[in-house]
Amino acid sequence: MKPLDIGIAGAGPAGLAVALFLARAGHRVEIIERFEQPSPVGSGLLMQPTGLTVLDALGLSSTIHGLGNRIERLHGADARSGRTVLDVRYDALSGGRYGLAVHRAALFTTLHDAVVAERIAVRTGISLAKAETRQARTVLHDVDGEIVGDYDLVVDATGARSQLVAASVVAPVIRELPWGAFWATLDCDGIDHDPRALTQRYDAAKVMIGVLPVGRAHPAEGRKVAFFWSLKIAEADAIRQAGLARWKAGIADYWPETAPFLDQIADWDQLTLARYAHRTALPPHADGIVFIGDSAHSTSPQLGQGANMALLDAAALAHALSSAASVEEALAAYAAARRNHVRLFQLLSYVFTPFYQSDSRAIAWLRDRLVATVAKIPPAPQLLASIVSGTLADPFARAGLQECRWLEAALREA
Questions:
Q1: At 265, which helix (H) or strand (E)?
Q2: Are 272 and 42 in contact (CB under 8 A)?
Q3: N or C: which end of the chain has fewer CB within 10 A?
Q4: Which terms are listed as keywords in the entry (predicted)?
Q5: Is 283 helix (H, G, I), strand (E, B) or coil?
Q6: How far apart are CA 34 and CA 124, in angstroms?
Q7: Neighbour tally for 132: CB within 10 Å
Q8: Per residue in 116-125, pLDDT tens?
């Protein structure tokens, strides 16, 4: 295929990653971002072997490892009894896999700096409303109806609230999820916590509190944790009205060891309320526009899988364009390459989320007694580790990737 003119909507991790892949493949690329200054959104996330493999393919492994924090296990316990409810260890799998918790600013800066180094054009302050096909080209319009640009292909990486996918012929049905979370990024140097684990506490399935050590947002800063507390979105206003002190006291009652983190929260403005939705664009392309990341598919945010799958989308799309004879053929190949992996993890999220975010005490009882026991019996530990890693179904080959050699990578990054 000849080099293409490609417009990429959105300068988040998916948009930045796909811009790097496509520019390095020889395509003429520009990124269009609605903010005046591209910036990260959110607190921390857990990079899985899937997303780490993509970053390694982009030559960014050393940079992200220098900022992130290696995670060996996921451990959750009942807040009252202390009984272990969840214990997933990456080393249950052979090969040395691990997770890397990162601040979203670290992931953004790593990718954005690479985009700047490649001299990829970034146009800012433009809110996109729709795309239309004109004589085999795809034209982008802003919210005022003005033409922003026309391209051989448009990649929509604007996320779960994408206006472009909403205005397309494959606009997905959006199901807003009732549960979300308050998030905060807090200092952790000198505070007792497990630096190699995502640690959680539960009260049935109605309360989930978590601490994820995410390393540094920038090299000169101290280390941080992402602190989160799940809640029903409909109850957020009532919780705020009851007062910050009451909210903090409730968490400290469940988990007294979090007091040094709670002491850092002096205002509701330090907390971000994250909302989630389930949506799938089928197929993830239409009329000269292709959707990646949360524009194409979203679900509840299980262990950062959204960001990891978005990076896989970027690699798979670039691979499809490199091996197809036409744009149409490439988009069909991209959709086929990602279909099974995306559907599998959306299904797993749908099945597992109620065990940790719901009003059902019966489900929580089942989780604490039966599931927690079965999870200790082989091959369950290996199965859980592969689910967490994002590798229950191989996502690499059809994206043109070869999974990292993790033991060698660990020695290299040490």
A1: none
A2: yes
A3: C
A4: FAD, Flavoprotein, Monooxygenase, Oxidoreductase
A5: coil
A6: 6
A7: 16
A8: 999 999 999 9
